[in-house]
Specification:
Elements: H1 19-33, H2 39-43, E1 65-72, E2 85-93, E3 99-105, E4 110-114, E5 120-124, H3 128-144, E6 153-158, H4 159-169, E7 171-176, E8 180-182, E9 195-197, E10 200-205, H5 206-214, H6 221-238, H7 241-246, H8 248-258, E11 259-261, H9 268-281, E12 285-289, E13 294-295, E14 306-307, H10 310-321, E15 344-351, E16 358-360, H11 362-370, E17 379-381, E18 383-385, E19 389-390, E20 400-405, E21 411-422, E22 427-434, E23 447-451, E24 454-461, E25 464-471, E26 476-480, H12 489-497, E27 499-501
Parallel strand pairs: 1-6, 3-12, 15-23
Antiparallel strand pairs: 1-2, 2-3, 4-5, 6-11, 7-10, 8-9, 13-14, 16-18, 17-27, 19-21, 20-21, 21-22, 22-26, 23-24, 24-25, 25-26
Length: 503
């Protein structure tokens, strides 16, 4: 018995992979221009047919809204039964909350799909789309996953719009967790999409970004969804209103042409209602709510399912609906970074470094440092997560010393160390160093703590640490959790606190 890691089916996933990014970006663009253009002009951009959907509940003005985002290869005029949708994402926007909550439902989730005949079909939830379109997707979610779910809007993005919108918004700096490589030679082992991306914080553009977010060969539904949501977070944080206003017509026309929405978003009142709500959420952090998926071992060709307990699903839904109030930033002139990011101070006193779940391994870290040429002083952790190992050294892959260029084209010496938490399931964490002190990923830390004499910048995703950064006169260094946030907060803090100069 083993865990089955599915291959890409003719690029099915990439039809959706950046759907969330595009929706967030284009919604922000629409919000930014709501006061600059007549709303009637904006509605004219929505040229794709609207979705007739009796299960959508039109929201009252000012009330919170839940948006269902689907990605599919469905084209207007073609039968729904011939379409595929590999990812289902819910977005919660509440003017009273300081976060935009997002949850991805695994495509392989085992559900009982309520068919129009009155019978239920046991299948993966992504099968509900070709069987009955967005209406059946919502009905299945309500019937077998989130019983209290009420959807206010539907956004179904066609894959043809993906590349156009990626080209329109340019590139995104993102934290690539490991080396991704495949050259499709037509053999069974290589018969999936080409990809060639090195590990490390970097700018991904067009085809590379597409390949990164669509990747699904050697990981799981959980890791793949987390990768997509990481990219959403990075994209939202990097594109401000000024640029969106400048590109408003181009973005909205592409969005409207290749995206089907519910009829309410084709109306003036519906758009004004959504615009006003999103305006209150401008600048709010994206909060990822993790679906409580359980990966079931399977024996192909039998279906390989993901499942979850009803209690865990109910808890995830409550977290998705939760209003989050973050503490105000400190009023002092000091900031968490030279870019002016503010973090909530935790304690000025130095705490002892955690050691639970860690083991000492300075030797392998020093070997990694010796295997690369970097003009930046290399810091490696003395402590790593128990049972984990470094990837490499392997020429051309691990470890990686490279030059990172900022948006102005200025070069910054950088390096990346990668450690495997569970390589079989595609879970890797890493240590990054760079002289680019204003890297967008470091903006707005959640909290500052002093541990083992180091002033650490903590970046949370919900209650889990996603990233812990530390600054020196030479550069900035950070520890990145796995995409699915498998390291505990104590492990993350202990690893960051143990960073030591190797050379």
């Amino acid at each position: 018995m083993r865990f089955f890691l599915p291959r890409s089916r003719g690029g099915a996933l990439w039809r959706f992979a950046l759907a969330g990014v595009l929706v967030v970006t284009c919604t922000a663009a629409a919000t930014a221009v709501a006061g600059l253009l007549e709303v009637k002009t904006i509605t004219s951009y929505f040229t794709a047919p609207s979705i007739v959907h009796p299960r959508v509940q039109v929201p009252q003005p000012g009330q919170p809204q839940t948006i269902l985002i689907l990605g599919s290869d469905h084209r207007a005029g073609e039968p729904q039964s011939a379409a595929n949708s590999d990812t289902i994402m819910l977005v919660r926007i509440n003017g009273d909350s300081d976060t935009i909550n997002v949850i991805s439902v695994p495509r392989d989730l085992q559900v009982n799909i309520p068919l129009p005949t009155g019978f239920a079909q046991t299948a993966k939830i992504n099968a509900s789309y070709p069987l009955g379109g967005p209406n059946l997707v919502i009905k299945t979610l309500q019937h077998d996953v989130f019983s209290q779910l009420k959807v206010n809007h539907i956004v179904d993005i066609n894959f043809l719009g993906f590349k156009k919108l990626v080209d329109a918004i340019g590139c995104v700096y993102t934290d690539v967790d490991r080396r991704y490589y495949n050259l499709n030679l037509g053999t069974e082992a290589t018969n999936y999409s080409n990809i060639d991306i090195q590990a490390g914080y970097q700018k991904l553009c067009d085809d590379a970004a597409l390949a990164y977010v669509r990747y699904r060969h050697t990981d799981t539904d959980i890791v793949r969804s987390a990768r997509q949501q990481d990219f959403i977070r990075d994209a939202k944080n990097q594109y401000g209103q000024t640029r969106l206003i400048e590109d408003r017509d181009k973005l909205l026309k592409i969005f409207g042409r290749y995206t089907q929405t519910d009829a309410n978003l084709h109306s003036v009142d519906g758009l004004i209602n959504l615009f006003n709500l999103v305006a209150f959420a401008d600048g709010h952090a994206i909060r990822e709510v993790h679906f409580p998926a359980i990966l079931l071992p399977c024996n192909p060709p039998a279906p390989c399912y993901v499942t979850a307990t009803p209690q865990a699903e109910a808890a995830a839904y409550r977290s998705f609906m939760r209003v989050i109030k973050t503490a105000p930033a400190p009023s002092s002139a000091s900031s968490a970074s030279s870019a002016g990011a503010a973090g909530r101070p935790h304690s000025a006193r130095s705490a002892r470094a955690p050691t639970a779940g860690l083991e000492s391994d300075p030797t392998d870290g020093k070997a990694q440092a010796a295997a690369m040429r970097s003009s930046l002083p290399v810091y490696v952790p003395r402590m790593i997560a128990s049972g984990t190992t470094y990837e490499g050294p392997a020429a051309g892959e691990y470890p990686r010393a490279y030059e990172l260029r900022d948006p102005r084209g200025r070069p910054h010496a950088s390096y990346r160390l990668v450690l495997a938490y569970n390589a079989t399931l595609g879970q890797f964490y890493g240590v990054q160093g760079t002289t680019w002190r204003e890297a967008p990923i470091l903006s707005s830390p959640s909290e500052i703590r002093v541990i083992a004499g180091k002033r650490l910048e903590l970046h949370f995703d919900g209650g889990k640490l996603r990233l812990v950064a530390w600054r020196t006169p030479h550069g900035v260094y950070w520890v990145s959790n796995t995409l699915s946030l498998d390291l505990s907060n104590q492990q993350m803090l202990g690893i960051a606190a143990s960073l030591t100069l190797a050379r």
